[in-house]
Amino acid sequence: MVGHAHELASARIDPGRVRADAAAHGPRLAEAAERVFARWLDGIPQTSQSK
After folding, report:
1. How does pLDDT run across 1-46, given as a tens digit for each residue?
2. Which one-letter DSSP state was computed for residue 18?
3. How far apart are CA 29 and CA 31, in angstroms?
């Protein structure tokens, strides 16, 4: 977040709150993201590659 300190300050966003929210919601969001990407990848047709 150090690289975005100016943007956060300009938008009056508290970095401590961002960290707290990430800690509180991060695990559930990571699980949901894994399910979304798994479903997406499962929907991609498989092709055989012959040499």
Report:
1. 667 889 999 999 999 999 999 999 999 999 999 999 999 999 999 8
2. H
3. 5
Burial of 8 (0-12, 13-18, 19+ CB in 10 A): middle
Terminal alpha carbon distance of the chain: 47
The two structure tokens encoding residue 40: 């997406």
- The SS3 of residue 37 is helix
- One-letter amino acid at 46 equals Q
Amino acid identity, residue 49?
Answer: Q
pTM of the model: 0.61
25/31 Cα distance (integer angstroms): 10
Q: Collect all residues with Cβ–Cβ distance below 8 Å to 15 and sequence separation of at least 6.
A: 1, 5, 8
